[in-house]
Amino acid sequence: MTIIAAILLFGVIVFIHELGHFLFAKKAGVTIHEFSIGMGPKIYSKTKNNTMYSIRLLPLGGYVSMEGEDGETNDPNAFGKKTLLQRASILFAGPFFNIIFTVILLIPVFMFIGTPTNSNVLGEISQNSPAQKAGLMANDKILDINGKKINSWEDILNTLQTTDGKKINITVDRDGKTKDFNIQPQKNEQGRYVIGIAPERDKSILNAIPSAFTGTYEMLKQMVLFLGQLVTNSVPGGAANAVAGPVGVIGIVSDAAKMGIPNLMYIGAMISLNLGVLNLLPIPALDGGRLVMLGIEGLRGGKKLDPNKEAMIHTAGFMLLMGLMLFVTYKDILRLF
């Protein structure tokens, strides 16, 4: 069942991407021949208003087949006949929808796990930590540390770092009663002094929404950093072992599904953002490569590139991507064994 959940999630993410292209193409009045989820042989199709909607056997992607996207055509509603802005919006819509979908997926995740508040009320106490051994409990409100008044979680973190690892006295309010605890801080892997406490978490949707935007931004920063490491060949463990194809992705999602819905949605958010960002790379055949071509057209004062030559460039890019996909899939299969 987890494999099925993984394939369905991957299919939904691809659907969201292609839906962005489809809706903006429809809005611009482009002739659309097919809206497909999956690649390879058809397993289901339905034609409506001269557009075929299909599901194909291999869950490796999808596409929106538009008239005049590659090559010459006389159709006045072809993709190539639309304005520069209309074509750019159609191409950008797919990645943009993936980014928005990332935020949407993260909202219920943060509603489930909660977002840390900046209050001085304790949430989770780590097992076998100095705080637990001393007797601190969840919902205790820290009033002062070594006599210094505490008003926020930031005050707690900053004060702990000024102790130089010496034993500290913490005064808390527990159910209206004041209690004192002597605790010995420990150094964590980052070299910071900790006692094993976590802040109280708010699980309301009002806090989940901004946290989803912040989480998406943090994911995006890590992704850009990773892409930079790929370009400079400085990925720890090697680039070939750090990337995954469809087989690897389905395996990752399958493992996440075993750990529950929140984990599955979080992994889905990461995959959606990856799909959106990677499609914006300036590589022929990808949305980013096509946007580069439109940018060149704009710099030429609206003079279009030869459609047939541009089609050849994108075809070459597509073949290169397919070769890369086969290589990554091969590595995925080796990892399975």
TrEMBL record:
Signal peptide range in chain numbering: none
Residue ranges of the TM segments: 90-113, 264-283, 311-330
UniProt entry keywords in alphabetical sequence: Hydrolase, Membrane, Metal-binding, Metalloprotease, Protease, Transmembrane, Transmembrane helix, Zinc
EC assignment: 3.4.24.-
GO annotation, cellular component aspect: membrane
Entry's family note: Belongs to the peptidase M50B family.
This protein's name: Zinc metalloprotease
